Amino acid sequence: MAVKTADVRLEDRWRDILSVHARTMCEIDRALHPHGLGASDFEVLDILASEAPGEGDQCRVQNLAGRVHLSQSALSRLIGRLEKDGLVERSVCAEDRRGVYVTLTGKGRALHTEVLPLQREVLSRLLG
């Protein structure tokens, strides 16, 4: 049997990481689907709940973009869907008209609280 080169071991490790990520995202999608959410939707709600914990607290979309692994356009579409569902509200920054804020609504905060244990259970089962 040939000894694996460092490059091959690194590539194998990378593929393992991708596989764990894909399985975890699929399981989160399955767990949250009955609640009308996907893994990426939850991730945005979860970040908003931690970054803007108080009622009416805002988070800049730019800050979300740095933490969610989506393109700017995909994030914008996702926020649009969450807004349409009444889970978040968007507003333009008064000081910098290019800046956009996102606020978790009461409905969004309640849904996040409801599904948080489901997401954490999947993480615990697959990564714990």
From TrEMBL:
A GO BP entry: response to stress
InterPro entries hit by this protein: HTH_MarR-typ, MarR/SlyA-like, Tscrpt_reg_MarR-type_CS, WH-like_DNA-bd_sf, WH_DNA-bd_sf
Highest taxon in the source lineage: Bacteria
Entry keyword annotation includes Transcription regulation: yes
Family annotation (Pfam families): MarR (PF01047)
Keyword field contains DNA-binding: yes
Coiled coil: none
Key words, A-Z: DNA-binding, Transcription, Transcription regulation
Gene3D superfamilies on file: Winged helix-like DNA-binding domain superfamily/Winged helix DNA-binding domain
GO molecular function: DNA binding; DNA-binding transcription factor activity
Residue ranges constituting the HTH marR-type domain according to the UniProt record: 1-128
Alphabetized PANTHER family for the sequence: MARR FAMILY REGULATORY PROTEIN (PTHR33164:SF99), TRANSCRIPTIONAL REGULATOR, MARR FAMILY (PTHR33164)
Full protein name: MarR family transcriptional regulator
Organism name: Streptomyces guryensis
